[in-house]
Amino acid sequence: MAMTRAYYFGAGPAMLPAAVLSEVQQELPDYQGSGISIMEMGHRTAGFEAIAAQAEADLRELMAIPAEYAVLFLHGGAALQFAMVPLNLLGNQQAVNYVNTGHWSARAIREAGRFAHVHIAADGGASGYTTIPPVTQWRMDMTGAYLHYTVNETIGGVEFHWVPAVQGMPLVADMTSMILSRPVDVRRHGLIYAAAQKNLGIAGLAVVIVQNELLKETPRSAPSMLDYRAHVEARSMLNTPPVFAWYVASKVLAWLKNSGGVTVMAERNRRKAAMLYELLDGSGFYINRVEKSSRSWMNVPFTLRDPSLDTLFLQQAAATGLTGLAGHRSTGGMRASLYNAMPETGVGTLVEFMREFERTRG
Ligand code: PMP
Known about the structure:
The protein is an alpha/beta fold. It is 34% helix and 16% strand. The chain has two domains: 21-258, Aspartate Aminotransferase, domain 2; 261-361, Aspartate Aminotransferase, domain 1 (Alpha-Beta Complex).
């Protein structure tokens, strides 16, 4: 079957590598001679166990995850982690520290507030969340159980290009929209979580990487499905796991390894982002307000100086095979998501289209 593939810039669920899609398509009716699809296969069969083990091994290799960290593949997306993190890591403490850099930090903060006193260590509000507050201005509650930050704000397009140095408490990171886009030092984190539907495959799955020594007694009233230790003991098969999403993740991870891993991805992602920011900065027609050192490599929000051209912009982009460019419903404007699966030619085509649109309409 010939595929007509768009360059899809949506923020998530997001574009998958074409090679992954064709493999999934080929294997779908008959997974490796089993006579059934992977969607029909029992999760405790040797066939699925092999996929699960390979996915974990590949993720460990790609991210250089040390042995003293557990890796979990869980249901519930990243939003469930907003709750599981405080529920499991609070222990005997009362407070937790959060850095607020925009929409997704705020969501995590709101959820943590159901379990703990949330101390805001820093807040980007003064800049309209267009920059990460300088670390010299951070104020921590040293009794806090951990410090949480959102490495990449998917809507605001603000990204940490450095790891906050924290002493005396574990660092927790929401890496949903940047995991595997560049190397990160896992050792500097106590817990990392990410939903899969951007750089790891499809929705319905979240990955959690957690230092074993942080795993504590979860409150007795907590459902066992929300207990990290129960998931660790059951090797993420406490109940029927999201097998198809886990399988797609295994394909994406294998693709990443074949493509050279995160160092190669980082180079490519840096070039992709640079191409687009260069165009935005050189133009009076398009605007991106994010401060340069905090700009995301993954999600580039921008507006047209004349918003009455938005609809025409989106229509003509779609006619060129460039889709998913409408901004988040809360912000309007545009957003180009440049995850690993977006090829450089896709960004090249977008930049060319935007130049031409500015030339004819500007
Ligand atoms: N954190 C970030 C940074 C996100 O971008 C998203 C989803 N866009 C989430 C959390 C929530 O993920 P999910 O919808 O899988 O719960």
